[in-house]
Amino acid sequence: MPNLNIKTRILLFVVVFEILAYSSIVLFSNVYYSRALSEVKEQEIIQTFKSSANKIDHTILLMEQSAYNLAQHGQSLYLQHQKVNFEKDDLKLKFSSILKQHFTFFDLALGGGVWFEPSVVFVDSDYFGPYVYRDNKEIKFSWDLSNAEYDYHNQEWYQLGKQAAKNLQPIIWTHPYIDEAGSLAPMMTVDAPIILDSGDMIGMATVDWSLSSLTAFLETVKITENSSPILIHKASNKIISFPLQTDLVMQTTPKEKWVSSLYNSSSVTRFNTSKNLTLNGKLYDLYFLETTSGFILGFFSPHKDIDKEVRAVSQVTLFGGAIIGVTFIILIIFIMKHLFKPFDLVLSQIKGSIKHTAQDKVTVQKIVYDEQNEFTPIITELNAVYLQVNTHIAEINQANAALQNTQNELDKLNTELERKVETRTDELNKKTKEALKALSELQAIQNKLIEQEKHASLGRLVAGIAHEINTPVGVSITASSFVDDELKYLESKLQSCQLSKQDLVKIIADLKEGCFILKSNLQRTAELVASFKQVSVDQSSELLRKIELNTYLSDVIRTLQPRINNTSHKVSFESHHEEINILCSPGAIAQVITNIIENALVHAFGKHESGEVSILLSKSDKEITILISDNGKGMTSEVLSCIFEPFFTTNRENGGSGLGMHLVYNIVSHQLNGTINCSSILGKGTQFIIKFPINLTQ
Transmembrane stretches, by residue range (predicted)? Predict the structure, then answer.
């Protein structure tokens, strides 16, 4: 290589590059281009499938629309007959005209008719089913199937239509079958029930579709040179078209490997493939998809067909590339032979004009070139560039010195900036510590306020119970005074010997009544004290104990009765139908129920409204559910989203702390290990759903 001139080296480079380029083309053709061709062929196959599937689906839709339109014509003529009362021959003539006109312009159908229920059209006619069929290209009208011998009412296609009418289906298809009543061709029938506005089915319209035209169309479609179609009706598992095994046509699909691949991978409108399937002793690739109308359309292609087509295109590409490569090499050699003669001299002079100094600096000198050829303007311009390069080199040296000075200044500024950043960081850390301390103090205040809210709730409970006890105690004192007066009266009568039998009977009756009043009111007082004692102890304690939840909730609501009696509202409790014995913190449950009910009494209703708060208790295998709802004014979405936040209240002007519902949320979440959800509809009320496990552990 060192002994070769630049022209020879360039020529050698071009030849080597061309050989490498041609080798790359060969590699690309055999690997990537073949793969790309396979993908293009697969896209072509997919488009062929989609086109064929769309034709099938479109034909199905046309058949269904034709049946529906024919049913509408039949219903219209029936209603006209009910008004005019046609003669039987006149009505037959009208149906003949309608059917012939309908099927003359719809050549996709083999035939069809309108079939009525017994005695619907004429009382004396059990069979009234006008029918037309296609004989070559001629439409012929027939009355031959309206008799007891054919008995179309009991035919499978008619019974299927009646079932569709019961299920309110406007259209239903039969499974593929052989037309044993006429053409003996494979076909399918679409039924369209005729249903009056009253909901009664009076008959149905049918359109027969010959599957022979469909199979003939599929046999003209080719995805590869030797491909063969297969068409299966999925609902009935019947093979409609299969040229490779014609003995299976109109038979149920056999239990073979290629059949299972069809059903396992089939999904509506998704293209699927199954490779290397053996059929009739040959290896095939199966391409298939399921149409939206319920058919599985597939094509068996010999395994080597696509590879054969791809190889043929690749060979043409390789041959063309070889010819282009050889031609290009010859052309380059010829051009370089004539164009590179003066190049050696110019190249050597350019090399000699560039000098390196001892300080690794580069200088360029003016090129002396006495020849007058195509390189003369280039050398002239190059000398002008060299002059500019020398000027720029001097400017660069000056700029480098200035840049070094600037770098020194930047180093000083960076040092100062680092010092300032360190100072600011220390200040920020100090502020952060102060903020954390303030946050800790704020949380302590919040916890204190929550405890105060608990004690305030207990205080309200004590005040209410004291007021409630006053009534039975006052009645008891009055009753005891009455009994005392009666006893004194009895004593005076005895001492004066003026006590009559009538007086004794009256005094005894009054004493019994006084004792009864005294006893009942003292019992009421004892019950209130007992309920208050247990609930108040529970609210001030977080210890777990076993309780019967129905009874406990009744006690909690009883302690709230004084508070409830001061309002015009009503609180109802629906207990569970069986006992619920649970291990829990009763005070937590009492606090939750108390706060929610008091919250409802304060916020749920207007000033002059009477409302109701309902409490429903239920139990599943593992958890308790308490549903508390009211029929009040409800909440907006903005209020609902903030209801459990601390210090949020809509009643701050009346002393509301905003901690009641936050306390409820914390108790349910942490003490009861449960969940609470609130929903509300503005103007209709609010509902709380509380769920927690049956047994809690400390």
Answer: 12-33, 312-335
Q: Do 300 and 219 contact (CB within 8 A), yes or no? A: no
**Cβ-Cβ contacts under 8 Å for 191 (sequence gap 6 or more):** 67, 157, 158, 160, 161, 164, 171, 172, 173, 174, 204, 205, 206
How many helices and strands in the chain, by DSSP H and E? 15, 21
| Residue 273 Cα distances to 261, 298, 516, angstroms | 9, 9, 94
Strand partners, 284: 277, 302
Q: What is the DSSP letter of 415?
A: H
- DSSP letter for each residue of 449-468: HHHHHHHHHHHHHHHHHHHH
- What are the distances in angstroms from CA 399 to CA 389, 393, 396, 402, 632? 15, 10, 5, 5, 83
Q: Which of 631, 599, 626, 646 lies closest to 692, judged by CA? A: 626
284-311: average pLDDT: 79
- Cα dist from 519 to 466, 486, 524, whole Å: 19, 17, 9
- 3-class DSSP assignment, residue 86: coil
- From first CA to last CA, the distance across the chain in angstroms is 91
Closest by Cα among 166, 160, 187 to 176: 187
- Most confident of the following: 28-37, 245-254, 354-363: 245-254
Q: How far is CA 333 from the centre of its chain?
A: 68
Q: How many other C-beta atoms are found inside a 10 Å radius of the C-beta of residue 608?
A: 6
Q: Which of 98, 96, 97, 104 is nearest to 69 (CA)?
A: 98
Q: Please give the Cα distance from 261 to 486 (Å, whole number).
A: 104
The radius of gyration of the chain's CA atoms, rounded to the nearest angstrom, is 51
CA 698 to CA 690: how far, in whole Å? Answer: 20
Strands 570-574 and 612-619: parallel
Q: What is the pLDDT of residues 459-484, one digit of tens each?
A: 555 555 565 566 667 767 776 777 77
Per-residue pLDDT tens over the stretch 171-213: 999 999 887 766 677 889 999 999 998 889 999 999 998 888 8
d(CA 689, CA 667): 14
Q: Where are the alpha helices (DSSP H) in 544-623?
A: 549-559, 561-565, 586-603
CA distances from 445 to 451, 661, 665 (A): 10, 17, 18
**For residues 506 and 486, what is the distance between their CA atoms, to the nearest angstrom?**
10
> How does DSSP classify residue 656?
-
**Contact (Cβ atoms closer than 8 angstroms) between residue 587 and residue 549:** no
Prediction pTM value: 0.44
Cα–chain center distance at 652: 43
If DSSP states are collapsed to H, E and C, what string results for 489-539?
A: HHHHHHHCCCCCHHHHHHHHHHHHHHHHHHHHHHHHHHHHHHHHHHHHHHH
Tell me the three-class secondary structure of 376-394, residue by residue: HHHHHHHHHHHHHHHHHHH
C-alpha to C-alpha distance for 605 and 113, rounded to whole angstroms: 69
Say whether 555 sits in a helix, a strand or coil: helix
The span from the CA of 580 to the CA of 548, in Å, is 5
- Per-residue pLDDT of 51-74, as tens digits, reads 888 888 899 999 999 999 999 999
What span, in angstroms and rounded, lies between the C-alpha atoms of 204 and 211? 22
SS3 19: helix
Beta strands in 77-200 (DSSP E): 111-116, 131-135, 138-142, 172-173, 177-178, 186-195
Between the ranges 122-131, 356-365, 516-525, 541-550, where is the mean pLDDT highest?
A: 122-131
Write the CA distances from 242 to 215, 316, 326, 617, integer angstroms. Answer: 9, 35, 51, 67
The residues, ordered by sequence, that sit 6+ positions from 176 with a Cβ below 8 Å of its Cβ are: 186, 187, 188, 211, 233, 236, 238, 240, 250
